[in-house]
Design brief:
Strand 6 (72-77), helix 3 and strand 7 (120-122) form a beta-alpha-beta unit. The radius of gyration is 15 Å and the shape is globular. It contains 3 helices and 8 strands, in the order βββαββαβαββ. Helix 1 packs across helix 3 (99-116). Strands 1, 2, 3, 6, 7 and 8 form a 6-stranded mixed beta sheet that branches. It is α/β, with parallel strands linked by helices.
């Protein structure tokens, strides 16, 4: 699984004019599922997102995690992150999970997030989403969990 995490002061996902996921200070994570991913990758990715130390401590060092600050988490499915962009002028999605597997594993990730971190909000798999955020810093990282 691949995720782009962004430290935000606010973020939201809108579908058909309705805000379906809204957070204040926290992490917005775009998430892609690849063909070989399993629930183990989803569990590992969630733990990394929740524990990744990207928030400033009293000394202005990135030493605090989302759990430490009790911020919001917005998970947004985005299959295009799985694109191979190494060559040419058009992305290849050969490594992306088929829609059924993507929906299943994002659903699993969503369920695990709800169980372990109540301040979680979500985008909608397969929907035409409008995503708005204010990136704080900007602070953005790529997390990848493969072959676990």
């Amino acid at each position: 699984m691949i995720s782009i995490i962004q430290r935000v002061t606010q973020a939201k996902v809108t579908v058909n004019g309705i805000d379906i996921g809204v957070i204040g200070t926290g992490i917005m994570a775009l998430v892609a599922v690849e063909k070989t991913d399993t629930p183990k990758q989803a569990d590992r990715l969630l733990e990394r997102i929740l524990n990744y130390r990207i928030f400033a401590d009293a000394d202005d060092k990135m030493n605090l995690s989302l759990r430490d600050i009790q911020g919001g988490l917005l998970l947004v499915p985005q299959f295009t992150l799985a694109a191979n962009t190494d060559t040419g002028n058009r992305p290849s999605f050969a490594s992306a999970a088929p829609p059924e597997l993507g929906r299943e594993l994002f659903g699993y990730l969503q369920q695990r997030a709800q169980e372990t971190y109540p301040a979680s909000q979500f985008g909608e798999f397969g929907a035409d989403m409008k995503v708005a955020l204010i990136n704080d810093g900007p602070v953005t990282f790529t997390l990848r969990c493969q072959g676990i």
